[in-house]
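Hey all, quick one. A colleague (J.T.) asked me to put the magnesium ion job into the tracker so the inputs and the structure tokens live in one place instead of scattered across chat threads. No bug as far as I know, just bookkeeping. Sequence used:
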Amino acid sequence: MNSIRKDFWILEWETLLWSHNWDADKKLKLSQTVNFHWFLDNYSSVDILKFLCWELFLNRILDFKSELSKNWIEWLALDIDETLSATSTYWFEKLLSIFWNPENLTAEQMASKYHLCQNVPYWKWNTEIFDLMYKFREDNDFQTNIPIIEWTNLHYSKIHSEIISILSYITVRPDVVVDGTSRWLDSHDFPKAELIHIPYELEYLFWNLWKACVLDVLYPNIVWIVDDNPSLIKMLPQRYKWEIFLFNKKELCDYSHINIHISENIEQVIRNIEKVFL
Ligand SMILES: [Mg+2]
């Protein structure tokens, strides 16, 4: 047994990683014992990804990395959901057209209160809702219908052609919807760039760890990313200096190893990017 596997096993993470059939309570209990930073401090991101993903996936990232390393150029990466697309509100709209919510909230209010459908307490144990969520997640046509956040396509096309090249979209959408996501990006004329999706099988609790490791592997070719997720920032290992344009947020506590530019809307993101690069 190699040592990362042994540590995963000792911490019961391996059980958690492959525990799709467990009930939410059991997962929650185990997830509370997980300290991802210990792993990030003790293992390389390549080793962690090797454990989390199929080898094929890791090799693709490493090939991409070696391609990038031929140039001393730094690029910008973009998240997709809630950074380019209003995904959460769309999911809530779809679910509210079928299921009742006792708080009588609109889709927008639910998205702002719970962020993700799986966080709604009175939906948590409803298997019908979870089955539908899995269906949405793996449906390519569903992805193509998600509304765009207004003007993001025009702004990022301008940034790409005039300020800094967009190299990659890094998303926790599963790899079974690469086609739908790619059609969505093309239909809105977003700049062409490498599309990196999370492996379909990976358990939700590991998504931020996965993304932090991918960014860690791609450093320093990618130092800048626009993302809406403060939990990702907390996860980034302290060995490098990232610069994050945090979208759609008003405030955030300070993380000394990362430069964070808070933006409440796309215009502010652009202003922050211009401040850094022009
Ligand atoms: Mg996002």
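Adding what we noticed when we looked at it: The chain has a mean pLDDT of 87. The chain has two domains: 55-84+148-277, 87-144.
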